[in-house]
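Bug #77: duplicate submission created two jobs. Keeping one. Sequence:
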Amino acid sequence: GRLNYVLKDKYYLTFTLRADGTNVFAPGNKWGIFPAGSAAWRISDEKFMEPTKKWLSNLKLRAGYGVVASSEVDPYETKGTLSQKPYNYGSESIFGYAPNKMPNTMLTWETTGQWNAGFDFGFLGNRLNGTIDIYLQNTKDLLLDRQLPIVSGFNQIKSNVGKTRNKGLELTLNSLNINNKNFTWSTDLMMYT
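Kept job's structure:
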């Protein structure tokens, strides 16, 4: 579901709620609910910004948070699999089936939550515009193969292990240098850390 609310074309709110399901996980872990929300304020349309209209054409403050998930595992990973194995039965060589992957019924979604905030700006009738964004991204329950002692009969099992954190700053600048009916020249610059 998605809900958008705009007030006076200056204040923006957006909420989304997504439910995803997959049969690669065990019962109880098949479904996940992932929310997101954002807010924005177009500062350049406020009355107190009137004196800047000649040179500042756009100024918008944004902030948001959202959760996404990954279910990148093979089918039947939670149940385990069998593989055909040869063995001797008396003087005959025959085939049977033996466990190939250890089941993990606790396996669940790898989730990433991200905060971000930023400014959109434009100068001189948007001839020069850009964005500045900062973000913080936290991922948990990473879907990775975990090594097992060989005496268990298996060398690894797919598990939810570990977490990561990413953060950064992004700057994007766009300029419209020449714009007429015969020729258009624009420049884009992107920097991030």
